[in-house]
Amino acid sequence: MKLSLTVNETDHELEVAPNALLVDILRGDLGLTGTHVGCDTSQCGACTVEMDGRAVKSCTVLAGQAEGARVTTIEGLGAPGNLHPMQAAFQAHHALQCGFCTPGMIISAIDLVKRTDGRLDEVAVREGLAGNYCRCTGYHNIVQAVLAAAERM
Amino acid sequence: MSEQGIGKRVTRREDLRFITGKGRYTDDINLPGQAYAVFLRSPYPRARIRAIDAAAAAKAPGVVGVFTGKDLAADGIGHLPCGWLVKSKDGSDMKVPPRPPLAIETVNFVGEPYALVVAETLGQARAAAALVETDFEELEPVVALAEATAGPQIHPEIEANRCYDWELGDQAAVEAAFAKAPHVTRLEFANNRLIPNAIEPRAAVAAYNRPTEEFTLYTTSQNPHLERLILAAFVNLAPEHKLRVISPDVGGGFGSKIFVYPEETAAAWAARRTNRPVKWTADRSEAFLSDAHGRDHLTTAELALDEAGTFLALRVRTRANLGAYLSTFASSVPTYLYGTLLAGQYRTPAIHVEVEGVFTNTAPVDAYRGAGRPEATYVVERIVETAARELGIDPAELRRRNFIRPDQFPYETPVALVYDTGDYEASLAKALKQADYAGFPARRRESEARGKRRGIGLSCYIEACGLAPSQLAIQLGAGVGLYESGEVRVNPTGSVTVFTGSHSHGQGHETTFAQIVSEKLGVPFEQVEVVHGDTGRLEFGLGTYGSRSVAVGGSALIKASDKIIAKGKRIAAHMLEAAPDEVDFEDGVFAVRQTNKSLTFGEVAFAAYVPANFPEDLEPGLSEKSFYDPKNFTFPAGSHIAEVEVDPQTGVVDLVRFVAVDDFGEVINPMIVEGQVHGGIAQGVGQALLEHGVYDADGQLVTGSFMDYCLPRADDLPSFEVDTTVTPCTHNPLGVKGCGEAGAIGAPAAVMNAVTDALGVKDLAMPASPERVWRALQAA
After folding, report:
1. CB–CB of B256/B158 below 8 Å?
2. In what order do the strands lie in the sheet with B598-600?
């Protein structure tokens, strides 16, 4: 089937299998390997991307559901020298170690700040990121980073 | 000293690629013409393979080949070995069951691979795998650890499913002490089975070049050289010089990616067999079933004390679950990495430990963050806490009375270790202050006024890192050395490329190792590059496990840098017309003492490669290597304090506070060290409150997904209060000890001491789930 979507401000026309997942398209067809797959039950959140203004787990979205959608992946956020405040805060606060959960965590965190207009405290950040696993950091520094970025977004 | 030298909170240079999506993990790598592998896995815990009918699968669309264990064996592929030979107390060698990469005659745990399908696409490989018809004859499995030795014999040649019956310590001295002890505290408990769950699943991308007979294997390994060594020397995949193993960015390991596994091995072999690059990436369900699990002990521990609370002797009996086969280092974890740590921080004069390692029809069990030391700490710190309660002595005070004192180092324990240094009183005092231990009774009353139960628990752990020295370990059965390699290659323009045999999969070595070399050579941080994880670019190395990287790998870089400085002094002396011993090196400048004659590091480097004015007896170039073999372990230690509040209505345990004061010796980058401690604590709290790998009575893994296995989420944990004390390691040039596992080692006992304190019960099994807590309260 044909699929038209916009990823990181670039329009794409693709031929995709009906059972393809959004994450398959991003990682495979488009080579955007910053979006990761950490589980097969939609629990870990490593595949989180922004679709039409809200964070979605791209392993749980059929590619066909993204018809006409605007998708932002970690590659579309900011580059060295021009980082998104959330990316910069993750580095400044050592909120990542192995980096595998990081893209999904950053996308979720941005979504959380937007949803709450940045009115966050530690408890709200922890509850808001409960859909994203990190096995390395114990979340301590992720919470610090998100609170700091919320001030700057 | 620069702002990016040793001891500074330098933000990590590796972060930039990770936060922008430019990391390069194994599954991100695609090779032209690659095919995809899918494994067929046993649905039974124990079964005989009568027949495999792959005819329909072989004809399915896109299938390149269907291969079984027999195909690998026919091609000369050997068994996966265990790298540490443990001897039983009668002197006999441990029993090693054969472990072909793909099962041939019998399968012995649910999820054990016995065949693979290679196809043009992943979807085609999966579809074809569903067409393979396998005729299994189910056999009675051995599942329960407690009954494992009485069950059916899993491996025909291994009686009572016993791998070894090991002991350490002076049994007679312990028996004598117990015979006249005024007080004996006894505990029986399990150390719950854990499933490591690095968020990146294991993966492999393998290619074979027929004309050159060279393999390239990209894989999720913590130690690519070890993988290459085993695949070459034991598995017979290819000669070592024809096999390049690359660990690109690796998404967490925690021990589980040390080992050489069936799937990576078979995928690499399939690349040669099919003459196609072959890619395999585990899905999470496969990871649960087939990654090496951790812990899983049953233990009886007894502590003998006098009336004043002085420890007289410790007696420990443990049965350790090894799973169905011996994973790469499985045998060492419940023995040399466990029994040797049972002295803890204390002067216990006599200790005897017996460990029975047994096989069951479950996934292999091997090193997981801490590897033996969390289990040992749990034994020591639970029984010390229990003894304090029984004797009515404050738990902190009882520990203090028995601590090894600072003036007693080096201290030889009754379980074969010599601690070089430490100050346990200092870390405990700092932790008690930080946790406001004195204010706990008031907080408890306040909780009780709200209908809640509150408890506080201590854990004063010790661990042994940087496993060493090689000769001793090899005498004790280790199959590999325990040194690390380092190379400091100074480029002609004066920048430096550092090669380390250590591997970073989250630890931040690209930053910390650059800090070390930058400071040592006086070269700007930005001009030091760190390379790791590629057997094609590096000297033989042993990778990263056991919190060894800075203590061993970092020390190798210091040694190599010393050689650079020594050679630089000779070059500078020649150029400045002085004797080498008149040249000092400081902050990147070679200077002739008591003169104004000097050369920068960059000038000397350039001269080394453009040797116009150069000593005749010296080779050009400026590149040096070192293999650093430590003289001893390092002994990080510390005090962790957990405070919990329990809701008696629901049984929910709320971890309200966690304080960790650790002595890691000198610290290279405090920011990274704190991060390591946070992550370790989270995994330790996970073990205590949430995580449990469970097989049902039929041998099926019932915690086979994130829906069933409770990995800690952000809202399960509090922020942590971490601090350090410092007694520098006495025998490595950096004075460092290692910090990667401390949290996972100290936390479980601290949390369970707090939970049992809150409930007023002697013991409770981990994880302290709401159901278990609620039931304990109902029974109390």
Report:
1. no
2. B583-586, B589-592, B598-600
Measured CA to CA, the distance from residue B187 to residue B204 in angstroms comes to 44
Cα torsion at B582, B585, B589, B593 (round to 10°)? -30
Which A-chain residues 73-132 have CB contacts (< 8 A) with chain B? 73-75, 77-80, 83, 87, 90-92, 94, 96-103, 106, 122-123, 125-127, 129-130, 132
- pLDDT band for B480, please (50, 70, 90 cuts): confident
**How distant, in Å, are the alpha carbons of B71, B194, B349, B678 from that of B375?**
40, 12, 21, 19
For B503-526, b where at least 16 C-beta lie within 10 A, e where not — what string?
Answer: bbbbbbbbbbbbbbbbbbbbbebe
The burial class, CB within 10 Å (0-12 / 13-18 / 19+), for B597 is middle
Using alpha carbons, select from B429, B479, B490 the residue that is nearest to residue B641: B429
- Cα–Cα distance for residue pair A129/A141, rounded to 1 Å: 13
- Read off φ and ψ for residue B529, nearest 5 degrees: -110, 140
C-alpha distance from A149 to closest chain B C-alpha (Å):
14
Q: Give the pLDDT of residue A45.
A: 98
Give the residue-averaged pLDDT of B507-514. 96
What is the spatial distance between Cα B222 and Cα B26, in angstroms, rounded to a whole number? Answer: 13
Q: Which of B264, B254, B217, B259 is nearest to B363 (CA)?
A: B259
Residue-wise pLDDT for B318-362, tens only, equals: 999 999 999 999 999 999 999 999 999 999 999 999 999 999 999
Shortest Cα distance, chain A CAs vs residue B12, angstroms: 7
- Alpha carbon of B531 to those of A100, B180, B502, B506, B534: distances in Å? 20, 59, 10, 14, 8
Tell me the pLDDT tens digit for each residue of B288-319.
Answer: 999 999 999 999 999 999 999 999 999 999 99
| Number of residues that make up chain B | 780
pTM for the model stands at 0.98
- The answer to whether the Cα torsion of B411, B412, B415, B421 is positive or negative is positive
Provide the Cα torsion B564, B570, B574, B576; round to 10°.
Answer: 70
Residue to test with chain B: of A50, A100, A141, most B Cβ within 10 A: A100
DSSP state, residue B634: B
SS3 call for A45? coil
- Over residues A133-138, the mean pLDDT reads 98
Nearest to B387, CA basis, from B325, B335, B309, B500: B309
- Token pair 């604590």 is found at B681
Q: Is the peptide bond before B767 cis (omega within 30 degrees of 0)?
A: yes
Q: Which of B21, B23, B682 sits opposite A138 (nearest CB)?
A: B682
Largest separation between any pair of C-alpha atoms in chain B: 86
Is omega for the bond preceding A80 within 30 degrees of 0, making it cis?
no
End-to-end CA distance of chain B: 60
Instruction: Count CA atoms within 13 Å of residue B641 on its CB side.
Output: 23
pLDDT value of position B473: 87
The mean per-residue pLDDT over the stretch A88-95 comes to: 98
Pairing of strands B35-41, B278-281: parallel
With beta carbons less than 8 A apart as the criterion, state whether B285 and B703 touch.
no
How does pLDDT run across A31-85, given as a tens digit for each residue? Answer: 999 999 999 999 999 999 999 999 999 999 999 999 999 999 999 999 999 999 9
ipTM above 0.90, yes or no: yes
